[in-house]
């Protein structure tokens, strides 16, 4: 799963710490998400997209899994 979180966060002028505070998570969580080491829960993905005023599909790029 790819995403636009870092791009959107930086264009909003937020540091990782500020972004984490807005979402109620740790800065380490934001670092892990941005580096692709952690996939956010559906609830967190929804909070992230809502914070940017976008749909989940506008923030996250879901790739089809091979069958």
From TrEMBL:
Keyword field: DNA-binding
Record's keyword annotation contains DNA-binding: yes
GO MF: DNA binding
Signal peptide: none
InterPro entries: Cro/C1-type_HTH (IPR001387), Lambda_DNA-bd_dom_sf (IPR010982)
Alphabetical list of CDD domains matching this protein: HTH_XRE
One Pfam family it belongs to: HTH_3
The keyword Heme appears for this protein: no
Superkingdom to which the source organism belongs: Bacteria
Domain HTH cro/C1-type: 5-59
PANTHER family per record: DNA-BIDING PHAGE PROTEIN (PTHR46558:SF4), TRACRIPTIONAL REGULATORY PROTEIN-RELATED-RELATED (PTHR46558)
Name of this chain's protein: Transcriptional regulator
Species assigned in the record: Planococcus halotolerans
Taxon lineage: Bacteria, Bacillati, Bacillota, Bacilli, Bacillales
């Amino acid at each position: 799963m790819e995403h636009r979180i870092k791009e959107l966060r930086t264009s909003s002028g937020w540091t990782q710490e500020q972004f984490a505070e807005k979402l109620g998570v740790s800065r380490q969580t934001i670092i892990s998400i941005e580096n692709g080491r952690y996939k956010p829960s559906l609830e967190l993905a929804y909070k992230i997209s809502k914070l940017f005023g976008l749909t989940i599909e506008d923030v996250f790029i879901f790739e089809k899994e091979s069958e």
